[in-house]
């Protein structure tokens, strides 16, 4: 929300109880360029191409028709998968099946059509579902029993019953799957089983799995063949994990939205149709992992890292990688945050042996002098603080 300066909004700015308020009087505006640059870079990438999600959720023919949050879905959507929602009109008029996927005219495609947890559907909508299954779509949800409308009765209910019997069978079991035409209808099973039956791996799989709770992801693909994954650490602590991406055959790059820097990923390995690489994120940090065709000058990466005989990568996220890489003019410039003998293996089996010196630890001693912005209501005199007191000052400032 932009606050008009004409409202006579003096420093430190007006603050309401909702939203993020932006205006020339807020305390961080003079230093806020980095925030807006970050938003611009992220939004540019998240508007490129089309979404690449696995589930298209049909909201139903009734009202209200609100897209549920992930935790409000009636089915358990496994970690690493994502979903979109559609209404009846789009399902009837815009969806088609291409290469076994549910496709929209602008290029977005999905693996599974999920139905709502109700037993009603308009006959024309169920006819569209029937057409999609016959063409090769995978459909997941309970059997439809009748039309939600009084229009065209009783023929409408009879047509719904006929189509439903063809899709789910006359007397289906509590859980099962049924082949119809070139497609399949699933009901009563976990969605994870449906994905496994169709060979659909997660878009993103985090190792160890317990770190997936705070890691959010969003996936898009472009006409040029780029695969774009936006990763965001929603936690208050730094995280380091190995991530398997559902992409192979392209070179991964880190695009840093906070700085605009683009760098080739130095450590990764291709495993079948997926690519594994380590990702380190600061508290609240984010990064874009972009899979693209590599330029001829791109540095060759490493597929395995050992330290003193212990394999650090791949290790299912059990170990951290205390190495930092820079893409220098003559090759990788590697520094270590922990001493030891490192062995880095390339895809062709060649190895690089490193024995870097122990890192120098600089002690932060004090006291440090803290000055305040003028005309913000803060004390006119500066304060002297020890490093151990900084966190106390930060908390005080947050709740002031």
Please, could you describe this protein's structure?
This protein is an alpha+beta fold and 400 residues long. Helix content is 16%, strand content 30%. It is built from six helices and 27 strands. It has helices at 33-45, 88-93, 123-134, 155-168, 191-197, 390-399; strands at residues 50-51, 55-58, 83-86, 96-98, 101-103, 109-110, 112-114, 138-140, 176-180, 183-187, 204-207, 215-221, 227-233, 239-245, 251-255, 262-264, 269-271, 274-281, 286-292, 304-307, 310-313, 323-328, 331-336, 342-345, 351-354, 368-370, 383-385. A six-stranded antiparallel sheet has the order 1-12-13-19-15-16, with no helix packed on it. Strands 3-2-7-8-10-9 form a six-stranded mixed sheet, sandwiched between helices. Strand 12 and strand 13 form a beta hairpin.
Largest sheet data: 6 strands, antiparallel
Instruction: Please give the count of helices.
Output: 6
> Whole-number average pLDDT?
87
Strand content: 25-35%
Spatial shape = globular
Q: Provide the spatial order of strands within the biggest beta sheet.
A: 1-12-13-19-15-16
Helix content: 10-25%
Low-confidence stretches: 392-400
Radius of gyration: 27 Å
Global structural class: alpha+beta
Number of strands: 27
Distance between the termini: 22 Å
């Amino acid at each position: 929300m932009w606050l008009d300066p004409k409202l006579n909004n003096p420093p430190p700015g007006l603050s309401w109880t909702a939203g993020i308020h932006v205006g020339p009087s807020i305390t961080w505006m003079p230093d806020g360029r980095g925030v807006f640059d970050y938003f611009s870079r992220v939004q540019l990438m998240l508007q490129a191409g089309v979404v690449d999600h696995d589930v298209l959720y049909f909201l139903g023919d009734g009202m209200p028709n609100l897209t549920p949050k992930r935790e409000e879905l009636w089915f358990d959507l496994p970690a690493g998968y994502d979903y979109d929602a559609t209404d009846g009109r789009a399902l009837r008029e815009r969806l088609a099946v291409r290469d076994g996927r549910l496709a929209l005219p602008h290029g977005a495609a999905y693996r599974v059509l999920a139905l709502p947890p109700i037993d009603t559907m308009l006959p024309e909508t169920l006819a569209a579902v029937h057409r999609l299954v016959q063409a090769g779509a995978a459909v997941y949800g309970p059997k439809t029993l009748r039309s939600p409308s009084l229009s065209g009765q009783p023929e409408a209910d009879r047509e719904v019953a006929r189509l439903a019997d063809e899709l789910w069978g006359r007397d289906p079991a509590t859980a099962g799957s049924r082949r119809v035409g070139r497609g399949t209808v699933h009901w009563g099973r976990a969605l994870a089983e449906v994905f496994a039956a169709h060979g659909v791996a997660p878009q993103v799989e985090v190792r160890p799995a317990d770190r997936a709770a705070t890691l959010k992801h969003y996936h898009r693909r472009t006409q040029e063949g780029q695969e774009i994954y936006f990763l965001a650490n929603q936690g208050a602590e730094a995280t380091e994990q190995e991530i398997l991406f559902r992409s192979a055959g392209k070179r991964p790059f880190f695009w840093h939205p906070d700085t605009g820097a683009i760098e080739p990923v130095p450590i990764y390995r291709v495993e079948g149709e997926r690519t594994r690489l380590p990702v380190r994120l600061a508290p609240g940090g984010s990064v874009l992992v972009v899979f693209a065709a590599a330029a001829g000058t791109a540095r060759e990466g490493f597929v395995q890292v050992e330290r003193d005989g212990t394999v650090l990568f791949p290790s299912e996220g059990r170990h951290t990688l205390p190495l930092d890489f820079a893409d220098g003019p003559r090759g990788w410039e590697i520094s270590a945050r922990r001493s030891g003998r490192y062995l880095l293996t390339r895809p062709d089996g060649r190895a690089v042996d490193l024995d870097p010196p122990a890192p120098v630890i600089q002690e932060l001693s004090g006291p440090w002098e803290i000055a305040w912005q003028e005309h913000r209501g803060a004390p006119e005199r500066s304060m002297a603080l020890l490093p151990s007191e900084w966190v106390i000052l930060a908390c005080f400032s947050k709740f002031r």
